[in-house]
Amino acid sequence: MSTFNSFKTRTSLSTGPRSFQMYSLPSLQKGGFPQIARLPYSLKILLENLLRQEDGRFVKAADIEALAKWDVKSTAQREISFMPARVLLQDFTGVPCVVDLAAMRDGIVRLGGDPNKVNPLQPVELVIAHSVQVDHFGQANAFQLNAELEFSRNKERYAFLRWGQSAFRKFRVVPPDTGIVHQVNLEYLARVVMTSDTAGGTLAYPDTVVGTDSHTTMVNGLGVVGWGVGGIEAEAAMLGQPSSMLIPPVLGVKLSGRLPEGTTATDLVLTITERLRKHGVVGKFVEFYGPGLAHLTLADRATLGNMCPEYGSTIAVFPIDEMTLDYLRLTSRDAERVALVEAYARAQGLFVEKNTSDPTYTETIDVDLSGIEPSLAGPKRPQDRVPLKGAKQGFAAALPGMMVTKKPDAAMAGNNARMANEGGVAQ
């Protein structure tokens, strides 16, 4: 962690018997930056990141001031550095990153140096999910048989990863047959608020992540700012190098109403994907807000975050609220962690309640949840949504001449007419 604190925002936060250090956005706001109060949730996360990472090299005081004064409706561009709190890897793209670290260690040894100096500087978690195959199914012991084959096929890779977990600090591996990487991230790995020990005490700060899986954005549903990157970017973050990025425009999606009975989060995300692809959100942050948030479960929110790559934005994030805290409890996060998340989010102005003022966004669109209807879409083109009630007409329009209506033969027609005259039921 840096030792710079140009704006004197480092302060303490108490929750229960524990005390934490934090870089306070309200303190910066009171120091001459009143517009911070109306910044979008995601830009507040970036601003805290700059405060905490200020080092005079990658992050300067001028960068902090520029974002604190940022006019979200401005078309001006400003480059900043972003350092994620942790890195998430999956086995296909993550293993080469670990191989590179091992190769660096070999190089250090050849030069007569200490290999232990090569270590990730950020917490890194690798989830083995992509190499899992299904060979056995439809039988009671299918899971066990598939697991045995999995370990047999990938024995060498798994032995290497096991070595990496013991050799590298801050590196953990989630074994195969546990779950899909972005689902494991949401249910188990995400902290929402991170902590680390520093010379001045235990520091609390927002959980942010870059991952080598495009659907890393699923964790946006939990209030965690994170997105997918390539292996080189992930490796750079592991070694303490920040990502350079332009302050993004932020599209606010205002949700109202609630989903009608019989509709699902899939119907909602297909509708929003269709709208956002038409609107154009590439290179932008998308942020959901409004009274409709109270009626979306974490599973609903995670679905909207998960489909972020399909509509093209960098992230699709939800703020922290009571639903977030409920989910943390339901997924067995300890009470101390939940208390810290709530206390930190409230102290930083990141917690959303019924009377919270809406942020100012670059642009906004409105989505009435009560108008969402059951829908269908092809497996590779989710933006080509078809309402379920229009599926037959859509099929006929897409494949003209394929819809053949069988005409009743003359005998059947005569029988139907006779039955109708006699008061019977036509066939």
Count of domains: 3
User: What would CATH call the class of the largest domain?
Assistant: Alpha Beta
Q: Give the name of the CATH superfamily of the largest domain.
A: Aconitase, domain 3
For this structure, the CATH topology of the largest domain is: Aconitase, domain 3
Proportion of residues in β-strands: 15-25%
What secondary-structure arrangement, pairings included, does this model have?
Elements: E1 10-15, E2 18-23, H1 25-30, H2 41-53, H3 61-68, E3 79-82, E4 86-90, H4 91-110, E5 124-127, H5 142-153, H6 155-167, E6 171-174, H7 181-189, E7 193-198, E8 201-206, E9 208-211, E10 225-228, H8 231-238, E11 243-246, E12 250-256, H9 265-279, E13 285-289, H10 298-306, H11 308-311, E14 315-317, H12 322-330, H13 335-348, E15 363-368, E16 375-378, E17 381-387, H14 391-398, H15 410-421
Parallel strand pairs: 4-5, 4-9, 5-6, 9-10, 12-13, 12-15, 13-14
Antiparallel strand pairs: 1-2, 3-11, 7-8, 16-17
How would you describe this structure to a colleague?
It is a single chain. The strands form six sheets. This protein has a five-stranded parallel β-sheet with strand order 6-5-4-9-10, sandwiched between helices. Strands 14-13-12-15 form a four-stranded parallel β-sheet. It is globular. The protein is an alpha/beta fold and 427 residues long. It has three domains: 10-82, no CATH class; 86-373, Aconitase, domain 3 (2-Layer Sandwich), CATH 3.30.499; 384-421, no CATH class. The protein is built from 15 helices and 17 strands.
Short structural description:
With 427 residues, the chain is of the alpha/beta class. It has 15 helices and 17 strands.
